[in-house]
Design a protein that fits this description.
Elements: E1 6-9, E2 25-28, H1 39-60, E3 81-84, H2 95-103, E4 108-110, H3 121-139, E5 144-149, H4 151-162, E6 169-175, H5 183-192, H6 197-201, H7 207-212, E7 223-228, E8 247-250, H8 251-254, H9 269-279
Length: about 290
């Protein structure tokens, strides 16, 4: 009887198209057959099995999605820039930011908030996703850059993680965003007894932020950049605006004399200098020349 060889068994529901596979099992037909083979034939059997495994993995493309390098969006082709306002959805403070982007020749889309900008941040993330698809269809670009001011940065993260943005966003820049919550939201709840849903979601240790920050804070897809100011009195502690795995820029590290409050971030000279330094076709970096 011809010797039996190990058999590759993919569990029911497994996938070999690039999505995660829950488990990979292999067995040996007819029990401990390898134990009965002479050393040369055992080596031959193992080599044959290895060849079969490699062939299956190559043909099927069996990889864990989180580790795929080729899933990353092309970084040398900047597309439209989507600007997401903060809590309350006000657009007034964004004017210097959008004007600078347009001066640099970028296609700019301001994603207007729904429900006054105080409702569920997950709904706002869905709206960002719709805006991204529309921008890509209109321009023919392959990706978008996203700038999230304040709560807008949290919205951008929700879209990337849960709304399909990982394959569409090239760069995500957040400005003074309460990624780990802000004490101000907790204080509003304590003093007033409650606050709008978005306010609750921006409180330290909220269910939304706890889930968003579990595991990888900067999931694969876009390159992540954050900017924060030591003089931010809205997002406190100011370290809440940082992300593990991101290029984290502090305004005072670039211009030590700057006293930039939260509301001044979109028009701050450092932030405006950051735009071409991190949203260009090259690798993101801190700006070298800033008119402090």
């Amino acid at each position: 009887m011809a010797p039996s060889f190990p058999i590759l068994v993919l569990p029911r529901g497994s996938n070999v198209t690039g999505r995660p596979v829950a488990a990979l099992q292999y067995g040996v037909h007819d029990g401990h057959v390898l134990d009965t083979l002479s050393p040369p034939r055992r080596r031959l059997a193992l080599v044959a099995f290895a060849a079969v495994v490699v062939a299956v993995l190559v043909v099927g493309g069996l990889v864990v999605h989180a580790s795929r390098v080729d899933d990353a969006v092309a970084q040398d082709q900047p597309g439209p820039v989507l600007v997401v306002p903060g809590y309350g959805g006000s657009l007034t403070s964004l004017a210097p930011l959008t004007a600078e982007l347009e001066r640099e020749g970028r296609d700019v889309v301001v994603v207007r908030a729904t429900g006054g900008g105080t409702g569920d941040l997950r709904v706002q993330a869905n709206r960002l996703g719709d805006a991204a698809k529309q921008a890509l269809e209109r321009t023919g670009a392959s990706s978008v850059d996203v700038i999230g001011y304040s709560a807008g940065g949290v919205i951008a993260r929700l879209w990337v993680r849960d709304g399909g943005g990982a394959g569409l966003a090239r760069r995500v820049l957040t400005l003074g965003s309460p990624h780990h919550g802000t004490d101000l939201a907790a204080l509003a709840t304590e003093v007033a007894g409650s606050c709008p849903l978005a306010c609750q979601q921006l409180g330290p240790d909220s269910d939304l932020l706890r889930a968003l920050n579990a595991g990888n804070e900067t999931p694969a897809g876009p390159i992540w950049i954050t900017v924060r100011s030591n003089d931010d009195q809205v997002v406190t502690p100011t370290g809440s605006a940082m992300l593990d795995g991101a290029l984290n820029l502090l305004i005072q590290d670039i211009c030590s004399s700057e006293k930039t409050p939260h509301s001044g971030l979109p028009g701050d000279p450092v932030v405006l200098a950051v735009l071409p330094a991190v949203l260009g076709s090259g690798a993101p970096r801190a700006p070298r020349e800033v008119n402090c």
